[in-house]
Specification:
single chain, Rossmann fold, five-stranded parallel beta sheet, 47% helix
Length: 135
Amino acid sequence: MGVTGGRFLLDIHVLLWLLGDPARVPVETRDQLADRRTEILVSAASALEVATKVRIGRLHSGAHLVDTWADRLRDIAATDLPITSHHALLAGSLVWGHRDPFDRLLVAQALVENLALVTTDTAMKDVVGLRLHSW
């Protein structure tokens, strides 16, 4: 990243790593996100994804996160990003072959809100105009 400050939307795996296994996130990225001039956002789509994966048994360690969501976001100075109809309409109409609805919402939110998406998901690199921070 290199510069201080900025506005970043966390992909769900990055959020989970920051909360449970921060060593998986490079020091430079952790330092950037910890900078008080940086705005960290977490999508309501990520809350839905975590709760869904806990319910269907694909995220066994996530039940506590569901119960303490707001507190855990505060722990990393992150703000909830609601889903608007503008986000949803763009997510549904993006010309991009990726079918995951959670990822489509994150991409749409990053585009609409002019946020850099923090992710290691290589599928995101194919979206024209999307600013990424990845490693």
